[in-house]
Amino acid sequence: MALSVRSWVANEGSKHLLLLLWLAANAMLFWRTFVLYCSAPQYYYLHKMLGVSVCVSRASASVLNLNCCLVLLPMCRHTLTLLRGTSKVWARAGRRVLDQSRRFHTACGTAICLFSGLHVCAHLVNAAHFSAKFSDEFPSLNMAQHRGQDPRVIILTTVAGVTGVLLVLILFLMMTSSTHCIRLGSYEIFWYTHNLFILFYIILMVHTLGGALKFQTNTDSHTPGCRPANHSQSLNSSTNQQPWQQQTPLCAEEPRFQSHSPETWLWVLVPLCVYCAERVCRFVRSRTPVTITMVTRHPCDVIELHMLKPGFKARPGQYVLLNCPSVSSFENHPFTLTMCPTEKKETFGIHLRVVGDWTERFAQLLYPEFSAADDVILPIMQQRNYPKVCVDGPFGSASEEVLGYERCVCVAGGIGVTPFACILHTLLEGWRQYRLRRLYFVWVCRELPAFYWFADLLCSLHNKLWQENRPDYLNIRLYLSSNTGAQQVCEERFGPLCSRLVIGRPKWKLLFKEIATANHTKRVGVFCCGPKGMSKTLHTLCNSTKHTHTHSHTHTTFEFNTEAFS
User: Rounded to an integer, what distance in angstroms lies between the CA atom of residue 43 and that of residue 263?
Assistant: First the structure.
C-alpha cells in the first residue's frame, strides 16, 4: 500500500524526529565518552591495564545516565497535562508529540536494559583484567587486592559490585513484569514491581560512590607513559634503544590517581525533583474527599459512576486515576471521563467494565448484588453507602484534540467509546462554541446490549442537531460484529439509531473513501480507542494514498490519533 507523503509527515514526522534526536543524543554521548577513555591522557594507565572494556563500560554508563534522566519525564502526568493545555504556546503538532510519551518512556526503558547489559559485560571483563593485569607499579590504580584474585570476589566485596548486582536484579524484575502478557494477565504484579524504581534510583546513587575506576590527576607534572627517573641511565646507555624511546620524557614525579566525583545525581536530580514534587502534589490533591452521587449498572458488565469533588475541573477527553483503599491502598487505575463538570452540573462520571480482579472487587463494593452472570438490559440505580474513593487527575490524552478539528472521525471498539462519550456530552451542552463542524462517529461492539450504554446520549444529540437544522453535523455508524441477538435490534425510543446499525464489521477502505470525498482538501482528525488490530488498520489507512482511488485525488489529510494512557 503506497504512502502519502503529506499524511505520513502529519502522522509520523514529529514522532520520527523525536526518535532521531534521541538516538543521535545517545550515539553522540556514547562515542564521545568512548573516545575520551581511549585517548585522554588522564586515562592512559587505566586504559593500558583494562583495554577497550573500560571505554565500553564508561560509554554505556553515560548513555544510562541520559536515559535514567529521560525515562521519568513521560511519567510526569500533571506536567504533560499543563503543557498540553497551553494551546497558545504549543501548536497541534507539538501537543501530538506529547501523545508519544508512553512510547518514549518504553524506548528509554529499553535503552536502559540494553546498555545495562553492555555495562555489566564490560565490567565483568574489567574485573578479570584487574585480576590478571594487577599493576605492581601503580597499586592505587588497582581494584583487586592482589594479582590473580577471583573476579567474583572483586565484584561481591566492593560497593560498586554489590550495588551493581542489586540494580541488575531490580531491573530484571521491572523489565519482565512490563511485558504485555503480565500487564494484561496480572496488572498488580506489574504495578508493584514497577514501583521498585524508587529503590533503583537510591541504589544507583550509592553505586556511583564506589569509585572503581580512577584517573590520573597530575598529567601536567607526570606525562603519561614517561620514563621513570631511576631508569634513565640504563636506558640512555642501551645500544638497542629505539628512536621513540629516546624521545620519551623523564617522569618528574609519580602519577597520582583518584576516583571521579559522582555524576549520576547531576543527570537525574531535576527529573527526580519534578517527579517527586508532582507526586506529592497529586497525593495531596487526591486526598480531597470524593462523593459518589450515583451508581448505574449497565448491560455487559459495565458500571457507571457519577462523582462530586470540590474544585474538580476537566476538559473533554481527559482521564483520571481511581483509587479505592478498600480494594488496594496503592493501586491506581486509569478511567476516561465520560462526563465532565459544567457550569450547570458539577458532577463528573466514568464508565468501567468489570474485567480483572481489581474491577471485580470494586464492583462488589459498589454493587453487592453484582454478578457477571446476570444479563441486565436496562440501567439499575441504587442508593447505598459507597466505599471511599480517591480521584487523581484529570490528565491529558489525545482525545482532547477532537474539538479542535473542523472534521473528525471517532472510532470506538466496545468500552473504548468512553473518551468520545464525554465529547458527545460536551456537544450536547453547546456545539456552536467549538471549531468542530462535522463528526463521524463509528462504534463497533460484539454484543447488541452494549449500544445501550450511550444510546440515550446519541439520540439526544442527534435530535438536537436536527432541531437546529444541522443534520449533517453528526454522522453515526454502529456496527454489530456478531449477529447473535440481531433480531432484537432496537426499541422504539432509539429509532434514530436503528437505521444506522449494521450487522458485520466496518469496511474501512470504503468508509475512508466516503469521508475523503465529502471533505476535499480538508485535514481530518482520526481518533481511535479500541483493540490494537483496529488501531493498526486505521493507522495504516491514514498514511496511505492508494487504498482508494478517490482519496489519492482529494488531497485529504488524515491525522491519526490513538489513546495511550501513560
Answer: 17
Within 365-490, strands assigned E span 380-381, 390-395, 407-413, 438-445, 474-480
C-alpha–C-alpha distance, residues 395 and 334, integer Å: 10
Q: Of 512, 527, 308, which is closest to residue 411 (Cα–Cα)?
A: 527
- Round to the nearest angstrom and report the end-to-end CA distance of the chain: 31
Q: What pLDDT, in 10s, does the model give residues 31-78?
A: 999 999 998 888 888 888 888 999 999 999 999 999 999 999 888 888
| Residues 20 and 102 reside in one and the same domain | yes
Same domain for 523 and 433: yes
| Tens of pLDDT, residues 162-221 | 999 999 999 999 999 888 888 777 777 888 888 899 899 999 999 888 778 888 888 787
CATH number at residue 381: 2.40.30.10
Q: Are residues 367 and 444 in the same domain?
A: no
What is the DSSP code (8-state) at residue 270?
H
Radius of gyration of the chain (CA): 31
Q: Which three-class secondary structure state does DSSP give residue 338?
A: strand
Contact 303, 295 (CB under 8 A): yes
Residue 29 domain flag: yes
- Do 437 and 547 lie in one domain? The reply is yes
Query: CA 417, CA 422: separation in Å to the nearest integer?
Result: 9
Judgement on whether residues 119 and 268 belong to the same structural domain of the protein = yes
The CA distance from 414 to 447, in Å, is: 9
One-letter identity of residue 256 = R
Contacts of 61 (CB under 8 A, 6+ apart): 33, 119
Cβ burial of 4 (10 Å; 0-12, 13-18, 19+) is: buried
Q: Which of 336, 482, 341, 496 is nearest to 418 (CA)?
A: 336
Q: CB under 8 Å to 181, separation ≥6 — which residues?
A: none
**What one-letter code names the amino acid at 400?**
E
Contact 12, 3 (CB under 8 A): no
Query: Which pairing describes strands 291-298 and 333-339: parallel, antiparallel, or unpaired?
Result: unpaired
- Domain with 521, as residue range(s), is 405-417+428-485+492-562
